[in-house]
């Protein structure tokens, strides 16, 4: 039996000191989930139901109060270099061009300038942004900014892609375009596991293998 890419077992996360006499907030309650390598899973639910908290636990940003969170059979103890995490807003560095934003993770990892330049331009080309490599975020539409953020997230070639409502702020037409480009990128990277948080059930059904 293959080890799951992601495994949550009886996971709960409670904000507070655990003392029933004080106010405690249960963000995630007794949740279990297994995701095999290479599967695209969408997590759907209303605001405040713990979707982002699950991503944060998988990213190693917070630890569960109860239960276990595992990646490839190993307990998640902290942030990992093989995880890409994209938020709802692009959060691009305004002083860096599109190309420089994509290169950021590669630069931090010490990749040679020429190699990271080639990789960033290749990703921008795949997302139809090759003509905007030297543009700053303020010069790009929201849809373009999100595509740059996708490229930045995937430039480090993570095995696990965590996406927290990445297309929620886009208009309907732009969202369809970016969704299509994202799926093409995922399909060209076999074996990559995706966990995609969304409020939109239609989007979840369109993109994911499993909801």
TrEMBL record:
<keyword id="KW-0813">Transport</keyword>
<dbReference type="InterPro" id="IPR003593">
    <property type="entry name" value="AAA+_ATPase"/>
</dbReference>
<dbReference type="Pfam" id="PF00005">
    <property type="entry name" value="ABC_tran"/>
</dbReference>
<dbReference type="GO" id="GO:0016887">
    <property type="term" value="F:ATP hydrolysis activity"/>
</dbReference>
<protein>
    <recommendedName>
        <fullName>ABC transporter domain-containing protein</fullName>
    </recommendedName>
</protein>
<dbReference type="InterPro" id="IPR050166">
    <property type="entry name" value="ABC_transporter_ATP-bind"/>
</dbReference>
<dbReference type="GO" id="GO:0005524">
    <property type="term" value="F:ATP binding"/>
</dbReference>
<keyword id="KW-0547">Nucleotide-binding</keyword>
<dbReference type="InterPro" id="IPR003439">
    <property type="entry name" value="ABC_transporter-like_ATP-bd"/>
</dbReference>
<feature type="domain" description="ABC transporter">
    <location>
        <begin position="6"/>
        <end position="211"/>
    </location>
</feature>
<keyword id="KW-0067">ATP-binding</keyword>
<dbReference type="InterPro" id="IPR027417">
    <property type="entry name" value="P-loop_NTPase"/>
</dbReference>
<dbReference type="InterPro" id="IPR017871">
    <property type="entry name" value="ABC_transporter-like_CS"/>
</dbReference>
